[in-house]
C-alpha cells in the first residue's frame, strides 16, 4: 500500500485524501496514518510546488555545477557533501558517477550571483579540486512535468 500511496502523491501531492482513500480501497484515517508514519520515518521528506518561473515573469538562473573533490579520510564523500548542502543557495547535491563526484544545483537572480557563489564559496573549500558550471537555458521537462509549450500541428490533413 505504501508504494501505491507514494506513487500517487509523487505526481500530485495535493490529491484529496478522500479521493486517495477511494483509489486505495480504504478509509481516510488509514491514509492519513500511513502518510504521518512515512513523514516521521523521513520516507516523505517534503512537499513541493513545481513553478514555471519563466511564465511567471520572474528572472531566475539555474545552474548545475559538477564538482570534483578529495573525499575526507574516514568520512568519504558525506562530510564534503554536508558542507556543500548546508549553503542556503544550494537546492540539491547528488553523488554521481563519471568524471565528477557531485552534481550541485542552485538558483540565483543573475549569472553573476551564481558565478560568485561558485568562485567565493564552493571552489575555495579545502576538498574541492575543480568545478564545472552548466547554466540551464531552457527547461523542457522537470520532475516528470512538461514545461515547454507543445506546438500544435497546423498542417492541413490531406487524403487521396
Automatic annotation (TrEMBL):
Organism taxonomic ancestry: Bacteria, Bacillati, Bacillota, Clostridia, Lachnospirales
Pfam families associated with the record: AsnC_trans_reg
Name of the protein described by the UniProt record: Lrp/AsnC family transcriptional regulator
Domain Transcription regulator AsnC/Lrp ligand binding: 65-138
Amino acid at each position: 500500500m505504501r508504494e501505491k500511496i507514494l506513487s500517487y502523491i509523487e505526481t500530485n501531492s495535493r490529491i484529496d485524501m478522500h479521493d486517495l482513500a477511494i483509489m486505495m480501497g480504504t478509509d481516510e484515517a488509514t491514509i492519513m496514518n500511513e502518510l504521518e508514519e512515512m513523514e516521521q520515518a523521513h520516507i516523505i521528506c517534503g512537499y513541493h510546488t513545481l513553478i514555471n518561473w519563466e511564465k511567471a515573469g520572474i528572472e531566475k538562473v539555474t545552474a548545475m555545477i559538477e564538482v570534483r573533490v578529495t573525499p575526507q579520510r574516514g568520512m568519504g564523500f558525506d562530510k564534503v557533501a554536508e558542507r556543500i548542502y548546508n549553503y542556503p543557495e544550494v537546492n540539491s547535491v547528488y553523488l554521481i558517477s563519471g568524471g565528477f563526484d557531485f552534481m550541485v544545483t542552485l538558483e540565483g537572480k543573475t549569472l553573476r550571483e551564481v558565478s560568485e557563489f561558485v568562485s567565493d564559496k564552493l571552489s575555495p573549500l579545502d576538498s574541492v579540486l575543480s568545478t564545472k558550471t552548466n547554466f540551464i537555458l531552457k527547461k523542457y521537462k522537470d520532475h516528470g512535468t512538461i514545461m515547454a509549450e507543445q506546438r500544435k500541428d497546423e498542417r492541413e490533413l490531406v487524403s487521396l
